[in-house]
Specification:
The protein folds into 2 domains: about 150 residues, 3-Layer(aba) Sandwich (NADH Oxidase); about 35 residues, putative fmn-dependent nitroreductase like fold. The chain contains 6 helices and 7 strands; from the N terminus they run ααβαβαβαββββα. The longest helix is centred in the middle third of the chain and has 18 residues. It binds flavin mononucleotide. Flavin mononucleotide binds next to strand 3.
Length: about 190
């Protein structure tokens, strides 16, 4: 049987919102940013910067400005002892003047999440963030747009994918297992005609 590590990680990857408190090494965090750096970029302009937060005290501050799992709030947020070990703040260097920033971020963050998954590290890509507060706290210059935050750490939960049954809302069962509905392949693919 051939091994398909990338495809297998794509199938297995789920958003993780509960983390073991084992620190993530600088070596691994650098590897994740390297994976982002090498992602495709419109016009190859490469407008993105990555601010890595692995200092525990700074992480506590950043945690205040991100919002978790809207469909299952407040249960879905990490509790004490489940907090992310690190964060990557994705920044758009506006003077670079890319017209494809959102696409570039998508490709870069997916690279981060897949490279992390191979290290047994889970991620939550977060767009529901208080950009003004994050800018103020970390003194991020106005030339940089704060796009999103990737929260990460060694996995302490194992969410499961399930077939879409009329709702896209992820949910927690009695055991606290997160279920994530995904549309069926036959519902999203069109072969040769609409
Ligand atoms: C652009 C983007 C922004 C997201 N923002 C948040 C967020 O602010 N908070 C959160 O808890 N999850 C966030 N998520 C995670 C989604 O809820 C998650 O990807 C979705 O439920 C599907 O689960 P899966 O990643 O396991 O496939 C975001 C995902 C994407 C792609």
């Amino acid at each position: 049987m051939p091994d398909y590590p990338v495809y297998n990680s794509i199938l297995a990857r789920r958003t993780i919102r509960k983390f073991s408190q084992k620190p993530v090494s600088k070596e691994i965090l650098s590897k994740l940013v390297n994976a982002a750096r090498l992602a495709p970029s419109g016009g190859n302009r490469q407008p993105l910067d990555y601010m890595v937060i692995d200092d525990a005290a700074l992480g506590v501050e950043l945690f205040k400005h991100v919002r978790w799992a809207g469909y299952i709030a407040p249960k879905g947020a990490p509790k004490s002892g489940e907090m992310p070990a690190a964060y990557i703040i994705v920044l758009d260097d506006k003077p670079v003047k890319s017209t494809t920033v959102a696409y570039d971020v998508g490709a870069a963050v997916q690279n981060i999440m897949l490279a992390a998954w191979e290290e047994n590290i889970g991620c939550c890509w977060m767009g529901a963030i208080d950009r003004a507060k994050i800018r103020e706290f970390f003194r991020i210059p106005m030339d940089f747009e704060i796009d999103s935050v990737v929260s990460l750490g060694y996995k302490a939960e194992a969410p499961v994918v399930e077939e879409y049954k009329g709702s896209v809302k992820y949910w927690l069962d009695e055991e606290g297992v997160l279920h994530v509905p995904k549309l069926k392949l036959e519902d999203v693919v069109r072969w040769n005609k609409f």
